[in-house]
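Issue 218. Parser rejects a valid record. Input:
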Amino acid sequence: MNIQKIILALGLAGISIAARADFPEKAVTLVVPFAAGGPSDKIARDVAEALRKPLGQAVIVENTTGAGGTIGTAKVARAAADGYTLLVHHIGMATAPALYKELSYTVPDDFEFLGLINEAPSTLIGRPTLAANSFGELRKWIIENNNKVNLANAGVGSASHLCGLMLQSALGVNMTTVPYKGTAPAMIDLMGGQVDLMCEQATNAVTQIEAKKVKAYAVTSAQRLKLPSMAEVPTLAESGLANFNVTVWHGLYAPRGTPSDVIAKLNTALRSALKNPDLIRRQEALGLTIINDERLEPAGHKKYVTAEMDRWAKVIRDSGQQPN
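Output the parser choked on:
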């Protein structure tokens, strides 16, 4: 009887392995924990399109919004660990543990890391009617007006929120922060002059800058953007804020317990997708840099996110930001 059970178990294991060898056998869903039309959504849709060929299946983008991205993230943490439900998330993956008192998931333990996708600087942009025409002039105006300056962000935990915290710390000021439910409404109010400033991903700001609907004062990366329209926009480090370097990155995740062979297939597909010329062209047009280093490996991705958790926990703590 015991021998029969062993044989049966081995047989079932063989069936399971054979089934995974055919992965994927149906559509794969990429959960984006933010609203449609925002920077993360745009990136996820580009990646989904590029993943279809290497995976040989449809890749569907699903927006599950709310609570600074934590609702969609929790959904993936609870999903079946079969590789069919994945998460595309930005820097908020590393900052949520410091921003929220309670989360229904744990980073990094509740996820498998599949690889970093890209990274991009943010841009410090202002309403078109601001009198300041350089960062030097803007800095003087901010210091003179301090908490009268309205600094918009896309919500707690968003890239714009985090960049704003670091900016205020670097300048030694406390601006009046105005959180929105997403990038789009914040950008609309900035263009309309209802708020003064915003620290927003280049992904979502370049088009508005080129159309002169907002003023660009600086970028947050160590180097200027290579886009022709942004070549004259200085970095914040160049402008006097030493070592100010904030890049917004996106990564791909699966639920904890996803089989190692499925993880390997997904990582291979991601590597192939990131070499897609159309994807590269679209990403570079938005000021994004495709990852092509050790962070594209699952282990390197996890190591990087863990280091970012430590880095941002200190920034958030030093800012006096209370966990929600």
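Fixed in the parser; the record now loads. The two ends are 56 Å apart (CA to CA).
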